[in-house]
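thread: overnight batch results

M.L. [08:02]
morning all. the overnight job finished for the chain we discussed friday. pasting input first so we're all looking at the same thing
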Amino acid sequence: MKYSLVELAPVAHNGSKREALHAAVRAAREADELGYERIWYAEHHHTVGYAAQDPVSLIALAARETERIRVGSGAVLLNHYSPFSIAERFLQLEALTPGRIDLGLGRATAGPLIDAALRRDRNSRPQDDFSHQVQEILAYYHHGFGPDHPFSPINLTAGMETVPDVWVLGSSGNSAALAGSLGLGYAFAGFINPGTAVAALDAHRESFQSTPFGTAQRNTMLALNIVAADDEDTAHRLTWPARLLWRRVAASGQAATTPTLAQAEAELPLDAKQQSSTFDGKTIPAQISGSPDTLKTQLEKLVEATGATEIMIQDMLIDPDLRSRSRALIAEAITRVDLSETADQPRL
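M.L. [08:03]
and the structure it wrote out:
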C-alpha cells in the first residue's frame, strides 16, 4: 500500500512563515527516510495560516534534499495560470530531478479580491475552463495538438527524456470523471469533504480508461487527516489542534494560525474533543487517529470501502516531535496493511 504526505506548511501561533517553510522542507527529508511514496506541497494565497503559497519553489528545494521520494504539487491552482507556463515550469523541475516530479492540478478560489489580484487581465470575465486547461498541458507533454492547431509548432519536451506525472485533484468529486477519462491519477481531499470520498472515487473508477497520458492501471489517492501515537488516548488528543483550527476558521471566515496541542486542550469545547476519530467502516470522520495496530485495521477498512490505491496523510501538527512520531507510526501502520482480500469495489 502506497502512502504519501501533503504539506501545507502550517504557521504556528506566534510563529513565522520562515519557520513553517523550513519545517515543510525537513518533512520531505523525513518522509524520504520513512518510505513515503511522495510529498506534495499546497498552494494557498494571502493566508496567515499556511506558508505554502508557491509549490514550485518548495518542490525544487525538497527534491534537491531528498534521494528517492516523488515531489509535487497538491495542487497548482490552474485557474490562476496559463497551461503553457505551468507545463514549462514543471518540465524544468523534471529536468532537474528526472522521474520524481508530480504535477497535481486543481482549481480553487482565494476569494474575489485575491482572485482578481492574481489575474493578469482584469478586464475580461473569468471562466471555468479547467478541463481544457488540463488537456492543453497533456498536449504539450505528449505532442497531442493536431496539425491545424495554432500551438502545434510548440515542442516543450525537446531535450527531455521524461515528463512529470500529471494528477487531477479535487474536493467535491466534480473532476473525478475528467481524470478517469484522460487516464490520469485522481487525488481526493477527504480531509475537506470526507462524506463524499466514496462517490468521488467511484466516479473515477467508473470513468477510467487507459490512455497515453497516464499509467495503465488506475491510481486513486485518498487524502485524509490522520494522526498517530503510541496509545489511543494520546492519538485522539492529537486531532484537537485540527478541530480547533477549523472552528476558528468557521467562526471568523478567515484562515488562522495553527494552535498547539496545549492551546487546543484549553480552548476546545468538550463535545468537540469527544467527537469520534475512528473509522467504523461506514462514516469517515473528519480526523482519524490511532496507534499502529488500530490504524492498520481502520486503513484496511478504508481501502476496502473506497478502492483507494494510495493514502495521503494530512495533519495540522506543528510540534516537531509529535509530528515526526505521528508520521513514523502512520508509516508503520500502512506498511502492515493487508490487502490480500480487498476487492476493488466500494462497500459503503
